[in-house]
Each structure stands twice: as C-alpha cells, then as structure tokens.
Amino acid sequence: MSCYIDAFMELFWHSILPHIEIDQIASQTGNPLDNIMAGAFVLVKQGFRLDASTQMRNFVYKNIKELYFPKQPPYEQGNMYDVVDFAMDYMEQASEQFRAMFQYKCSRYNMCFEDTEHCWFMPDDTVRNTPLFITFIPSVVDKFHLSTSSDQSAHAITHLIGYPRLKQQCIYCQKLAYQYKLPHNDPAFVFVIDKLGAVPNRTDNIIFPYIIQLYSQRYQLHAMIHSTSRTGIHYKTTAVIHNNGGCFLACLDNLSKPGITVITENVNEFYFHFSSNHSSLQKKLKII
To answer: Tens digit of pLDDT for each residue in 55-82?
Structure first.
C-alpha cells in the first residue's frame, strides 16, 4: 500500500533529479526532505532502486507524520493515500530553494476592459509565488476542449497561472479593469494535475502534448503518474529515462517484476503509447 510514495519518488529519481544538483541543494538548505531525497537518489544511481524505495517509505512512516505534515492525518503503514495529496504535502515541506524550480513567480498586472493601452502594475505589489501544482478541473477541461485536442493545453495552463479577475475601476478612465498575474520566471519543471478522472460519469481523458510552449519557454513531457481506478487503488509512473546518452520511455511499478518495463525508445510518442497501452488507467499527475 506504499505505491503513492513509490510513484512520486520514481518520478523524481528518473525525470527530475538527473537534471538538477540535488546534493548541492540539500547541503545548502539542510532541509530533512531535501536530504532524504538526495540520499535515496544516491542509492538509485548505484543500482539499489528498491532499497531507495524502502528508505523513503520508512522515512515517511517514521518521521513525516509527526514532524512535517501537521495538516494531514498521519501517513500510516498499510493504508492507502492519494498520490496528489502526498505530492502536495511533500513539496510544501521541502525547502524554498527546491520548490523554486517548480514555481512561477508573478506580479499583479491590471488592464482596462475598454482600452488595452490603459494598463498598470499594483504600486506597492511584491512578486508572489503561484501554486506549485497547476490543476485541470472539469470546467477548464471543457472550456479549452482538452479531452478532444492537445492544441489548447498551453492556453489552459497560462489561463490558470494568470487567471484574470474583475477588479475595480480603471485608474485612467474609471471603466472596469481586469487583473492578471504576470510571470517573472520560467521554472525548470511544471507540475500539472488532471482531476478529470476523479469525476463520476466522465470517461474522457485529457490529451496532453509531448512539447508545450508556456510563455517564453518550451517544455517537454517528462513523466506521468496514473492510477488503476478513479479512487486510486494502485499508482504507476510512466517516465522518460535518460541512459548512456540516449533515452527511452518506461513504466515503473514496484508491484511488478522487474519493476521497470521499457515501452519504447520513441519518447516523442509519449502520449500515443500511453493512451494505446494504458487506456484503463486514470491520469493523476504530470511533470513537464
């Protein structure tokens, strides 16, 4: 019943940590969650992936329930929990330096509804962090037709990041004005949550592109965590794994042997192979 831990860690070990200096971050921050992530990754690189999983599980059961997650009921051994809840809890308690790689920093920007040349920043506004996880809720899925086309995914994400809100009067003409969030950075990675599979009577899935342009940065789909049913039951990770100068797409599942199954070396066909070979799985969490 630990797959919610395993799936999230497999995503990090194979699709994120090979591209960052986690040892340096952990030594600078001293954060316990940064440190355990770095230590487990050493085991993975040495070929002891299952030992790394055991280390992470023991850390969660022994320490996190008392020290780090006061808002969440304890993660107890033998019980099943949602991978998204665990991911949010873990990232919330990681160091600010670690979280910064996944987070947009935005300032508030105002624009007149009648005259787009009437625009201004909040005079005393500070740059603020957006939520770590961008969530596709059903209303957004339907608004941008994400279950029938991948073309609108970037628009949906930028809409959720900069979500316009109706504010007070325009300071120039006193007409209505909208307020947007204007990003100041391009994070190294972006988490996207797909909540469509948790909605009763919805059988469609979000079509997500392999390459996506968000603001000035192009992102590539790195990994996806998915469950075997709408209520969770069992979580698996599909990830792009880099190896000896090349890369391949694999499914990681610690309940099966050998635990890693190579799907294809054509990683640009990520979604095609996922939808064809895993049509019964409900997608939960993506990292791009």
So the answer is: 999 888 887 656 555 555 667 788 888 8
- Write a three-state SS string for 111-159: EECCCCCCEEECCCCCCEECCCEEEECHHHHHHCCCCCCCCCHHHHHHH
pTM: 0.82
Print the domain residue range for 121.
105-183
Q: How far apart are CA 138 and CA 200, in angstroms?
A: 11
Instruction: State yes or no: cis peptide before 258, omega within 30 of 0.
Output: yes
Angle at alpha carbon of residue 113, lines to 146 and 104, rounded to 5°: 50
How confident is the model over 112-138, as pLDDT tens digits? 889 989 988 876 666 778 778 888 877
Residues 92 and 193 in one domain: yes
Q: Which residues pair with 192 in a beta bridge?
A: 134, 286
Indicate whether 57 and 171 sit together in one domain. Answer: no
Beta carbons of 68 and 33 less than 8 angstroms apart:
yes
Query: Residue 273, CB half-sphere, CA atoms under 13 Å: how many?
Result: 20
